[in-house]
Automatic annotation (TrEMBL):
It comes from Thermomonas carbonis. PANTHER family: HEAT SHOCK PROTEIN HSLJ. Residues 53-168 form the DUF306 domain. Gene3D superfamilies: 2.40.128.270. Coiled coil: none annotated. Residues 190-282 form the DUF4377 domain. This is META and DUF4377 domain-containing protein. InterPro entries: DUF306_Meta_HslJ, DUF4377, HslJ-like_sf, Hsp_HslJ-like.
Length: 291
């Protein structure tokens, strides 16, 4: 089985607070459980609701880059017609239009953007400048960076790292993805524990352990039967990126039904497909998962 491609981070937003009319206690059954009316807790919700994430919901394209001496960082513009592009969603950052898709976790603390070391797939590029581009991005977008946002109609984000490099990005609305062909339904088994991704540049980065299950073996996977030597199951492989709609819980394995969709306009160096969760067929703790 070939290694599954990396994923571009999904940009999904949803949020609503529904109201519910309390049931008449006199008509409730003896075993009924009272559900508080969310409207009655509105002040509390207002106090705890997180502030909107200003970086999410946009594609940030690299516009300018200079070092501490004001010199242009030409290495970050290896593809003049396809500038580096950054997206933020759910605490994850994705960089495309390099040699490989790069991704990692981020956290905002006021005007400080904390970036973990970026991970990447291991795709080979023939252009030496694009090969070097990955390393340039990893070196300059890591650690604590000061961030500033300017402009309303055309927002700009400026990031400054500890070395004094300044990277200016121009925001654009997220372009809806277009797919080609029909969705392919597959079954994936996700191991309970992640493992190191075997990338020497980011030795501590953890990857999901995933293997594709033959459709006729999906029941065995869900029931945790012994599968050693079974040709219907491949070995677990590193999975770079995310499965849309799925959140991994360390120590809990899962069997998932997935819709795999091919992108009609996949970014250069980015994934050609996305993996979208359709259903969770089974979950179980690590102790109950067969090898």
């Amino acid at each position: 089985m070939k290694r599954l491609p990396a994923l571009v981070l999904p940009i999904l937003f949803a949020g609503c607070v529904g109201t519910e009319t309390p049931a008449d206690p006199a008509k409730s059954s003896p075993d009924a459980v009272a559900v508080p009316n969310p409207a009655l807790s509105a002040p509390a919700l207002a106090q705890t609701a997180p502030a909107p994430e200003p970086l999410a919901g946009r594609q940030w394209k690299l516009l300018q880059a200079s070092d501490a001496n004001g010199k242009r960082i030409a290495a970050l513009f290896a593809q003049a017609d396809r500038p580096l592009q950054v997206e933020f969603a759910r605490g994850r950052m994705a960089v495309t239009n390099a040699c490989n898709p790069l991704y990692g976790k981020y956290r905002r603390n006021g005007d400080v953007l904390e970036l973990e070391a970026l991970a990447s797939t291991m795709k080979k590029c023939h252009d030496p400048e694009r090969i070097a581009l990955d390393l340039e991005v990893k070196q300059r977008l890591t650690g604590k960076l000061s961030s500033s946002l300017t402009g309303n109609d055309k927002p700009r984000m400026t990031l400054r790292n500890a070395a004094g490099d300044a990277l200016v990005f121009l925001a654009a609305p997220i372009v809806p993805r277009r797919y080609t062909g029909t969705a392919q339904e597959i079954v994936l088994e996700v191991a309970a524990m992640t493992k190191r991704c075997n990338d020497p540049e980011i030795p501590d980065y953890q990857c999901l352990q995933v293997r594709e299950v033959a459709p006729e073996k999906a029941g065995d996977a869900a029931n945790g039967k012994d599968r050693s030597g079974d040709t219907g199951f491949d070995r677990f492989l590193n999975f770079y990126g995310d499965i849309e709609g799925y959140t991994h819980v360390p120590g809990v394995g899962s069997v998932l039904r997935i819709h795999r969709r091919k992108l009609a306009d996949a970014p250069v160096g980015g994934p050609s497909s996305v993996y979208i969760l359709d259903a969770v067929l089974e979950t179980r703790p690590a102790s109950a998962q067969a090898d």
